[in-house]
From TrEMBL:
Reactions that this protein is recorded to catalyse: D-glyceraldehyde 3-phosphate = dihydroxyacetone phosphate; L-erythrulose 1-phosphate = D-erythrulose 4-phosphate
Organism: Stappia indica
Protein name: Triosephosphate isomerase
Enzyme class: isomerase
EC number: 5.3.1.1
UniProt keywords, alphabetically: Cytoplasm, Gluconeogenesis, Glycolysis, Isomerase
InterPro entries: Aldolase_TIM, TIM_sf, TrioseP_Isoase_bac/euk, Triosephosphate_isomerase, Triosephosphate_isomerase_AS
Function noted in UniProt: Involved in the gluconeogenesis. Catalyzes stereospecifically the conversion of dihydroxyacetone phosphate (DHAP) to D-glyceraldehyde-3-phosphate (G3P).
Residue sites binding substrate per the record: N11, W12, K13, G174, S213, G234, G235
Length: 250
């Protein structure tokens, strides 16, 4: 099977004022300078910056995403943002089910699945996040937990054109810890087989990202693992130099 074009996606979380658009412009410049020819590049800034980021990125090849969306297109949901609003602001992607949303806002697999469906309704590509906690891995349950999250969070009809899955072990996010390459290989192969079992051969085109403390120093090793089609990068996506070094390792 052909290798998928790698995707390096940055998650800025609740970081970034308008001054951060300078970093984004540097990323866009590198994308337009040739980097985007071999790697898909995306930054998911806070919602307040999506429109400005999309304008700054222009047609550089760097694309912009949201970090969450509501399930409804509009309505009485004070403070929430719909997938349609993100698309209207220039977003192409939206992260759903990040472990921080699952933990801080009690998001269930069913809700994450409905959000992914909302993303599709709006024409966005959903980046669905899954991953076990440290206790779950220590108990030998990592594969089962992720399998259940995939079954519950990924909508029917998924294919590589509108779904990306990010495997993000909760204990590796923001900690500087990463799983061994063998553990990443095992999980990604498991996820590929699981998705193929459900969606058939078209699941080969679903990009499976690894996320959790990806840095310039470990990106090459993690990105070379079988069935790792890119990375979801938190802290190291805030600086253009780090993000671009990771993208160049892809
Ligand atoms: C994330 O939040 O998606 C993430 C992977 O964070 P970090 O790279 O900072 O561990």
């Amino acid at each position: 099977t052909e290798k998928n074009t790698p995707l390096i996606a940055g998650n800025w979380k609740m970081n970034g004022l308008a001054t951060a658009l300078g970093e984004l412009r540097s990323m866009a410049e590198a994308a337009a300078g040739g980097l985007a020819a071999s790697v898909d590049l995306a930054i998911c800034p806070p919602a307040t910056l999506v429109a400005a980021a999309a304008a700054a990125a222009g047609d550089s090849g760097l694309s912009i995403g949201g970090q969450d969306c509501h399930t409804a297109a509009s309505g009485a949901h004070t403070g929430d943002i719909s997938a349609e609003m993100l698309a209207d602001s220039g977003a192409r992607w939206v992260i759903v089910g990040h472990s921080e949303r699952r933990a801080d806002h009690g998001e269930s697999d069913a809700l994450v699945r409905a959000k992914a469906e909302a993303a599709w309704r709006a024409g966005l590509i959903a980046i669905v996040c899954v991953g076990e906690t440290e206790a779950e891995r220590k108990a030998g349950k990592a594969l089962d937990v992720v399998g259940a999250q995939l079954a519950g969070s990924v909508p029917d009809g998924a294919d590589g054109a509108r779904l990306v899955v990010a495997y993000e072990p909760v204990w590796a996010i923001g900690t500087g810890l990463t799983p061994t390459v063998d553990d990443v290989a095992e999980m990604h192969s498991y996820m590929r087989k699981d998705l193929q079992g459900r969606f058939g051969p078209s699941a080969a085109s679903i990009r499976l990202l690894y996320g959790g403390s990806v840095k310039p120093g470990n990106a090459g090793e993690l990105l070379s693992v079988d069935n790792v089609d890119g990375a979801l990068v938190g802290g190291a996506s805030l600086k253009a130099s780090d993000f671009l070094a990771i993208a160049k390792a892809a």
